[in-house]
Specification:
The chain has about 475 residues and is of the alpha/beta class. The chain folds into 4 domains: about 150 residues, GTPase HflX, N-terminal domain (Rossmann fold, 3-Layer(aba) Sandwich), CATH 3.40.50; about 55 residues, no CATH class; about 160 residues, P-loop containing nucleotide triphosphate hydrolases (Rossmann fold, 3-Layer(aba) Sandwich), CATH 3.40.50.300; about 50 residues, no CATH class.
């Protein structure tokens, strides 16, 4: 059984806000794919979908198995297409129309079937689309077949995400990582990408300049990939050295992770008083940022803002950004930030679990922070209580951030605070200044040239005043 839904848009975004005419006009193709199962004889589900679909479905199933069923809701096709819409806007394009098809099985040649291809061809032509974007990863053969039929450039969800990353990369490291991911994506898709790159065939009488150019391009790309991997290994080495220097001092690292557009950068700015770029666009943050935060115990920790995760995050990106995401692997505590108001929050959280498992960071100590509490009506916020492992906050309005800092303070074991009584000579001005800035002072009395103090200070500070403990 098949059904379709097609929508055309005027020169405005989905919310109806008039926008500046973008560079490209995009037509979106969504797919709602349901596997059939033979429940009568207990046979396993079968499908003509590419093997990649099965691999990703298996990873998602393994991740979802560890999550409560109530929190593993399926990401619907309509929500997925809406997410593709937002991704397209983040890439700087204008969405001029979209079509959604529901199928029991994917077509191995064109993904959506010959009849649907003809419909997309007509719809793309009527909307003057420059690019047709599929909400599914296309195999090299599917991409070639679709490009032959559709009079517009064809890309898939993975290529769109790679393009957004390329637009937002600012540092040299980020640019290297994006280029590496793009080249690894491009390499198996060279054959047949346009006449000038087409493979003429194999065997006698079929060899020609097309094959020669194809192989030349492959060699160039492989050489470039090797060069980029070497440069990124240098980045990893520098990061390891920097991390070793940081770890020589007892300073814990807290990493922010979460689905894209969950408000991580806004929370980062609120906690660190930094001015990191924060936007409602997807993947506004690409290059990682690290800043210091002083906790209520006066301990200093480093907070790391990372790139947002997304459903079906291309594996090439996870691999390429491993140097950056090592901060997550080495963190003492992970703050998993979710959008408290998102209707797809459960599935988004499941996708974050998948990426954390790929990074082998799923067992790290963690706090779940539900952001955007300011979007919840004030009279309903009582229904969002903080617990030992979950906290509801508003980074934008600064709601409940003190409780979050207290919880981070409690969760961290590095440089643990100690409560001690001290008798320090008034001549020890540097030590008194240190305690003033790095400890919580509960009492203070002056007598006979000494200052009697009761303080709570990090272990590293207590060591420096140990001789004055009474």
């Amino acid at each position: 059984m098949r059904s379709t839904k097609q929508t055309a848009f005027p020169s405005s975004d989905r919310k109806g806000t008039l926008t500046r005419e973008p560079r490209e006009r995009a037509f979106l193709v969504g797919i709602d794919y349901h596997q059939r199962s033979k429940n009568s004889d207990g046979d396993a589900e079968r499908s003509t979908a590419p093997k990649l679909v099965h691999a990703r479905a298996a990873r998602a199933a393994r991740a979802a198995a560890s999550i409560d069923e109530d929190h593993a809701a399926r990401f619907g096709a309509d929500e997925s297409l809406a997410e593709l819409h937002e991704l397209t806007l983040s890439a700087g394009a204008q969405v001029v129309g979209e079509v959604l098809q529901r199928r029991d099985r994917l077509d191995p040649a064109t993904l959506i079937g010959k009849g649907k291809v003809e419909e997309v061809v007509g719809a793309a032509a009527s909307t003057n689309a420059d690019v047709v974007i599929f909400d599914h990863e296309l195999s090299p053969s599917q991409l070639r077949n679709l490009e032959r039929e559709i009079n517009a450039r064809v890309i898939d969800r993975t290529q769109l995400i790679l393009d957004i990353f390329a637009r937002h990369a600012r540092t040299r490291e980020g640019q290297l990582q994006v280029e590496l991911a793009q080249l690894k994506y491009m390499l198996p898709r060279l054959t047949g990408r346009g006449v000038e790159m087409s493979q003429l065939g194999g065997g006698i009488g079929t060899r020609g300049p097309g094959e020669t150019k194809l192989e030349t391009d492959r060699r160039k790309i492989n050489r470039r990939i090797s060069h980029l991997e070497e440069q990124l290994e240098n980045v990893r080495r520098v990061r390891r050295q920097q991390r070793s220097r940081r770890e020589s001092v007892p300073v814990a690292t807290v990493a922010l992770v979460g689905y894209t557009n969950a408000g991580k950068s806004t929370l980062f700015n609120a906690l660190t008083k930094a001015d990191v770029y924060a936007s409602s666009k997807m993947f506004a943050t690409l290059d990682p940022t690290v800043r210091k935060v002083t906790l209520p115990s006066k301990r200093t920790v480093t907070l790391s803002d990372t790139v947002g995760f997304i459903r079906n995050l291309p594996h090439t990106l996870v691999s390429a950004f491993r140097a950056t995401l090592e901060e997550v692997q080495r963190a003492s505590l992970i703050l998993h930030v979710s959008d408290a108001t998102s209707p797809n929050r459960a599935e988004q959280d499941a996708q974050v679990e998948i990426v954390l498992k790929e990074l082998e960071a799923q067992d790290k100590p963690r706090l779940h922070v539900f952001n955007k509490l300011d979007l919840v009506p004030e009279d309903q916020r009582g229904g969002y209580p903080n617990t030992d492992e979950t906290l509801y906050v508003s980074a934008k309005e600064g709601l409940r951030l003190d409780a979050l800092l207290d919880r981070i303070d409690t969760a961290l074991t590095e440089d643990a605070p100690e409560r001690v009584k001290l008798a320090i000579p008034q001549s020890e001005g540097k030590l008194l200044s240190l305690l003033e800035s790095r400890s919580r002072i509960f009492s203070r009395e002056y007598r006979d040239g000494y200052v009697d103090l009761e303080v709570q200070a990090p272990e590293s500070v207590v060591r420096r005043v140990k001789r004055f403990v009474r």
